[in-house]
Amino acid sequence: MSDRRLSTSNSRTINKNTNILKMEPDMAQLLISDKALTVIFILLICLINGALIVTQVRKPMFYQKVKLMMIISLAIGDIFFALFPLVVQARLLFEDDKSFMTCRLSTNTTTYMSFLIHFVYGLGLVVLAAEVFLRNRIQSIHDNRYKIVTAVAASSVPWILGLIIILPLCMSNVDYESYCINSQSLESMFGVSVFLPVSLSIVVSIVLSCVHLPTSQQGQAISTNQQPIVVSQQTVAQQGHLTQYPPQDYAPGNVHYNPLNSNPYPQNAVSYPYPANQQVMNQSSAVNINLNQGVSTIQVIPMNQRAEGQRLFLISIIFGLMVVPISAVTLRAADIFWLALMVKIVVTKFVYWLMVARSCLTPLIMIGYSNL
C-alpha cells in the first residue's frame, strides 16, 4: 500500500515538472516586464552615474587627479554606452513602427552594449590600479598644467584603445547590404572586449592588495647613531598653529623645574608660528626616517593602498560576475541543450539584465572607493 502511494506521489511530481517544462511563455507578460525594466534601468543609470559624477566634481582640484578623472570617465561611459542601446530598445518596445532599426543602428547598439562598454570599464579599473602605484610620483609634480594633462590623458586611455581596437574588430566585417551578418568570430570579439579586461582588472587589483611599493626621498640628516625613528601619523598645518618658545633671555637655570607642570616654560613665554618650511605629513602615510651619517632615506608607505586594492578587487569581481555570463551563454548558445523554451527565455533574459545592472551596481561601490 505504501509503495503504491509513493509511486503515485512520484508520478504526480513528474507530471508537475513536465507541465512546467511544457509551459509556453506568455509573450504579453514578457513584453510588459521588458518595458518596465528598460524604463527602470534608464532612470537608475542616469541617477546613479550622475550622482557619481557630481560627487567627484565637487572635490577640490578634481581635474588634476587621475583617480577622480578616471572615475568620471567611467561614469560617462556607463551613461553613454548603456543608455544608447536602452533608448533604442525602448523605441522598439513602445513604438509600433520598427522601420527606424537599420542594420547599422543594430550593429552600433550591439557593439556598444556587448563589447565596447566592458572593454572601457575593465581597462579603466586597470588604470585606477596603476594610478595608486604612481600616485606619489604624480603628486610630486609641481606644474599644475602638467597634472591636468596627465589626468586627462590617463582617463582617456581606455576610450582611445576602445576606438582603435574594439570598433574595427566588431564593425569592420559586417555586411550592411545583405542580411546584416558579421563575419568576425564571436570568440575573438568576446575574448578581447570582455574576458581580457575582466582578467586584467582582477589580477592587477590582487597585486595592488598584496604588493606595497614605498617611495623614497633623499635629504640631509644629522650625524647620529640612533635607531631609525618612526614618525606616527600626524597632520601639521603650515599656518595658523602656534607653539610656545622660551624668550631669548630664558635659560633653564632661571626657572625652578616642577615635575607636575607639563609646561616647563615660564608663563610669559612668547608664541611663535611654525616656520614656513615646516614639513606637512599626510594622515594616510607613515614616514620612516633612518638617521645615519651623511644622507638619510625617508620612506613614505601609503596606508590606504591595501584598502584601495581590496575595493578595486571587489569591483572587478562584481564586474566579471555580471558581464561574463551573457558572454558565455552567447558563445555557447548553439551547444546548450535547453529543457524547454521557457527555460531558455528565463536564462537569457536574466543574464542580459544582469549585464545591464552592472552599470548601476559598480558605480554605487565606486562612490565609496573615490572617498578612500
TrEMBL record:
Q: Which cell locations does it reside in?
A: Membrane
* Entry's Gene Ontology cellular component terms: membrane
Chief localisation class = membrane
Signal peptide from the UniProt entry: none
What SUPFAM superfamilies does the record tag this protein with? Family A G protein-coupled receptor-like
Bilayer-crossing residues are 36-57, 69-92, 112-134, 146-169, 189-211, 312-330, 336-356
Q: Does the keyword Transmembrane apply?
A: yes
Where the record annotates domain G-protein coupled receptors family 1 profile, the positions are: 48-366
Which domain of life, per UniProt? Eukaryota
* The entry's keywords: Membrane, Transmembrane, Transmembrane helix
Give the protein name, as stated in the record: G-protein coupled receptors family 1 profile domain-containing protein
Naturally occurring in which organism (per UniProt) = Biomphalaria glabrata (Bloodfluke planorb)
Question: Gene encoding it?
Answer: 106050423
